[in-house]
Amino acid sequence: MSQTKKKIHFAWWVLVGIVIMVGLMKGGINSAGGLFLTPVTEDLGIGMGSLSLYFSISSIVTMVFLPIAGKLMGKYDIRTVLIAGTILQAGSFAMFGLMNSVWGWYLFCIPMSIGSVFVCQMAGPVLINNWFKKHNGLAMGIMAASGGLFGAILQPMAGNLISSEGWRYTYIFLGVLVAVILIPTIILTLRMAPQQKGLQPLGMDEVKSEDKSTAPKGMVNKGVTAAIARKSSAFYFLVLFFFLITSIGSFGQYVAPYAMSLGYDIAFGGTAMGGWMVGSLIGSLTFGFLTDKIGAKNTAMFAMILGLVPVIMLVTVGTNKTMFALAIAIYGFVVASIATLGPLLTSALFGNKEYSQIYSTAVMGLAVAGIVALPAYGFISDITGSYTSILYAVGVMLLINVVAIAFAFKGKKKLEQAGHWN
């Protein structure tokens, strides 16, 4: 710490840029989509299921474009790529405000999703691994928490704007605001590698052995090969975990419509989503800490069991405003496990030998869940006129995930006994 008093390593400025970028895009744009569902469907006479299909299209585009994005980031200047991604994502979001047909969402969600791949998913982990050899886990945790931090401010603001100025104005305002803040931030703070600033990564010469569990790939070389991992029962249960936890988290897009179905207004829906973001912020930091203390398996099981609490609260006392807001905050806390526990469970089950190859395949469960769950919830609400059956399904998925985690670690034991873990 005494060295940082002389001069702050540029890695920390890179992290500031990542936090602003991920926070604005995840907390201000990606997570805000659900706030617009009810106002748009009511104003344009579109079914909830029909409009929410754009979430599926987004997930498909993301799945297809992920491998392409990695190549483009390695070929072109990172600032150019991220500015282009910002314009695509924020600009497309703003364009929703000019649409009069559901086809506008189907069309503009494509460039929005392409931009999001760069800005929300790829850039942060790549830049942190390039710049941080020490404090890598801390930096990842801060990045994961940024969406909750910014969302706690932007979600209530968006809900109030929709209530006072309308959904069209709010789409355009949020899209332009994010782009205006983010483009200069990218120019000033982000560089692909320390060598571009004549520096070494932070802590390159002082990484300690206790940092092994969060070290970047290549620093710890124990575990299972991707070829062996993908044939194991542990892998299939991990994919199931990813699919179910993402399906559980997908309910976040329906918090505002659910609130309005209970008689609350859109402004309260935004406030409730702000509580979700606060819970997500705390959860992102808590789950990493708990994993260090009690292990990834126990932490994941705790998260799934805790998830039953907000489900029960929403079904039984959801008509009470305070209880509804509290339940949504706890729900957001639990859903933070998607970003935090997913990577930690992968490394706990398979080590770091070929972590990136294993993780990149396992997270296909996330993409598939996005394609299936989001429109399914919309169509279920259209057919039943209620969100109660969706909440029951969420409760069942939480219980299945407890079983999936247990069987995944049984699969790990089989890999160890077969001599594949080395």
From TrEMBL:
<feature type="domain" description="Major facilitator superfamily (MFS) profile">
    <location>
        <begin position="11"/>
        <end position="413"/>
    </location>
</feature>
<feature type="transmembrane region" description="Helical">
    <location>
        <begin position="49"/>
        <end position="69"/>
    </location>
</feature>
<feature type="transmembrane region" description="Helical">
    <location>
        <begin position="358"/>
        <end position="378"/>
    </location>
</feature>
<keyword id="KW-1133">Transmembrane helix</keyword>
<protein>
    <submittedName>
        <fullName>MFS transporter</fullName>
    </submittedName>
</protein>
<feature type="transmembrane region" description="Helical">
    <location>
        <begin position="299"/>
        <end position="317"/>
    </location>
</feature>
<dbReference type="Pfam" id="PF07690">
    <property type="entry name" value="MFS_1"/>
</dbReference>
<dbReference type="InterPro" id="IPR052983">
    <property type="entry name" value="MFS_Riboflavin_Transporter"/>
</dbReference>
<feature type="transmembrane region" description="Helical">
    <location>
        <begin position="266"/>
        <end position="287"/>
    </location>
</feature>
<feature type="transmembrane region" description="Helical">
    <location>
        <begin position="323"/>
        <end position="346"/>
    </location>
</feature>
<feature type="transmembrane region" description="Helical">
    <location>
        <begin position="81"/>
        <end position="99"/>
    </location>
</feature>
<feature type="transmembrane region" description="Helical">
    <location>
        <begin position="137"/>
        <end position="157"/>
    </location>
</feature>
<dbReference type="InterPro" id="IPR020846">
    <property type="entry name" value="MFS_dom"/>
</dbReference>
<dbReference type="InterPro" id="IPR011701">
    <property type="entry name" value="MFS"/>
</dbReference>
<dbReference type="GO" id="GO:0005886">
    <property type="term" value="C:plasma membrane"/>
</dbReference>
<feature type="transmembrane region" description="Helical">
    <location>
        <begin position="105"/>
        <end position="128"/>
    </location>
</feature>
<feature type="transmembrane region" description="Helical">
    <location>
        <begin position="12"/>
        <end position="29"/>
    </location>
</feature>
<feature type="transmembrane region" description="Helical">
    <location>
        <begin position="234"/>
        <end position="254"/>
    </location>
</feature>
<keyword id="KW-0472">Membrane</keyword>
<keyword id="KW-0813">Transport</keyword>
<feature type="transmembrane region" description="Helical">
    <location>
        <begin position="390"/>
        <end position="409"/>
    </location>
</feature>
<feature type="transmembrane region" description="Helical">
    <location>
        <begin position="169"/>
        <end position="190"/>
    </location>
</feature>
<keyword id="KW-0812">Transmembrane</keyword>
<dbReference type="GO" id="GO:0022857">
    <property type="term" value="F:transmembrane transporter activity"/>
</dbReference>
<dbReference type="InterPro" id="IPR036259">
    <property type="entry name" value="MFS_trans_sf"/>
</dbReference>
